C-alpha cells in the first residue's frame, strides 16, 4: 500500500520544474519571426536570386517592401529578446547575419532610389512637404505600413496632381521608410553615408551648372575687372536660385527623410550643403578684398544687396548649429563688402578733390567731371537703402556741420546717407567754384557755373537723389543756378547795354543818335563774336537765358531804334528783328549744338560708372 501511494519519481523529474507556458510561447514566437524574416530576406538576397539583381524591392504597390520592412522590424525584436535571454545563442548569430543581409539590401535600395529620383527630388513638389497632395500620394508607399485600404483615396488625389509630383512624394516616403528602418536597426552611419554622397554630388553639380566656381583670393585678384564683373553677374543669378530653390529644397528633403532623428538630418544637411554654401557665400568676400576703384562700386553694392536681401533665407535654411559657419560666412562677406564700399566712397571723394585740370573748359559748358560725378551719385541714390546700412555707423567727420541752408529747409532729412550724398555734391560744387576762376572772362565764369549747377539740379530732380535731398535742396540750388545765368546776362552784355541811352524812348539829337548806333554796333559785334563759341547744352536753360536777354536787350534796342532811326539810316546795321535772329543763334558753341568730344575728358579721371 505504501508503495502505491508513495511511488518515487525519477531523478530528472525531481530536478526540472514543469515547462513555463509563457517562456515557450515567447521563444516560439521569436523563432517564428526569425524563420519568416529569413525566408523573405534570403528571397531578396542578390547573391541567392538573380531576379533580385534586376527588380527593385520598392516597386509597384510596395506590398513586398512593406512585408520586408515588417520582417526586419520583427527580426530586430527577436534579436533584442535573444540578447536578454541568451546572448551566446546560435539563434542570435543567425539573426545578426540575417540583419546584415537585410541592411545590405536596404542600402542598395536606398542608393538606387536616390539615383533614380535625383531629378524628381529637386522639383517644386519637394518643397510642399506638408501638403495634402503629398499626404495622399505617400499613402501608397511604405511610410504608412498600417494603411492598406486607401487606394481609392490615392486615385482621387492622383487625378489632381502631376505624375512627377506623385513620383517625388512616393520616392521621399520610400527613403524615409528605409532610413527609419536602418537607423532603428543601428545602421544610421551607413544610411547617412549613402545619402550624403549622392545628394552632395547633386548639389555640387547643380551649382556647377549655374556657373558657380570655387575660387580663391589669388585667382580673383589676378583676373581683369571685366572678367570678375561677368562672374559677379553669374553669381547674382546663381545665389538667388541656390538659396530659394536648391538649398531650401535640400533642407526640406533632409527634414522629410529623417523626421524621426533631427540630429541625423542636421548632420546630413550640413555635410551635403555646408561646403558648397560656404564657397558660394564666400565669393563676395573675395571680390571685396580685391583692389578698390570707383567703377567697382556698383557691382560691390549688388553683391551686398543680394546677401542682405537673402539673409532671411540664409538664416532659416542654415539655422542648425552645425551650419553656423555658413551664416558666419555671409556676415563676414557683408562686413568686407561694407568696408570696400566705404573705402571706395572715400576714394571717390578724394578723386573729386584732387582733380588737377588747370585749363578752363571751352565755351563754359558742363564739365565731364560734373557729368561723371552726378551720374555716379545718382546711381548711388538707387542703392540708398543698402548704403544707409553701410554708412549708418560711419559718421561723416566735418570741421563744421553742413549749413541748414544747403538743404533748403531745417526739416530736411539729416540721416547719415543723406548727409554723405549732400557732402559729395558739395565737394563737387566747391571744385566747380575753383574751376570757374580759371576763366579770364567773368561772364563766361558765370555761364559755366550756371551750366554746371543746372546740370546738378536736373540730375537731382530726375533721380532718387530728390528723395534724399528733398524739394528744398532742389529749389534753393535751382534759384542759385538762375542767379548765375542772370549774372551772365548782366556781365556778358554790359557793354551792349551801356551803348544805349539810359532812357531808350527819350528823344536825343541826331548826332548823338548816330554816335549811339555806332557804339551799339561795335559793342554788339564784339560781344557776339566773343560769345559765338560759348555754349549752354541744356535746351531749357538756353531758351530761358535767350528769353531773358531778348526781353532786356531787344526791347530796349527796339525803343531806341524806333525813336531815333530817322536821319540815322546809314548808321543802322540791325533792325530789332535782326537782333533777335542773331541772339537765337548764340549759346550753341562752335561745335554746333554744344556736343563735347570724348577727347575732352580728363585723362586723370576714371571712366564712367560701369553699371
Automatic annotation (TrEMBL):
Exocyst complex subunit Exo70 C-terminal domain location: 234-585
GO annotation terms (biological process): exocytosis; protein transport
Keywords: Exocytosis, Protein transport, Transport
Pfam family, one: Exo70_N
Keyword presence, Protein transport: yes
GO CC terms in record: exocyst
A GO molecular-function descriptor: phosphatidylinositol-4,5-bisphosphate binding
Region annotation (Disordered) ranges: 1-24
PANTHER family in the cross-refs: EXOCYST COMPLEX PROTEIN EXO70 (PTHR12542), EXOCYST SUBUNIT EXO70 FAMILY PROTEIN (PTHR12542:SF17)
Family of this protein: Belongs to the EXO70 family.
Described function: Component of the exocyst complex.
Annotated protein name in UniProt: Exocyst subunit Exo70 family protein
Organism: Carya illinoinensis (Pecan)
Taxonomy of the source species: Eukaryota, Viridiplantae, Streptophyta, Embryophyta, Tracheophyta
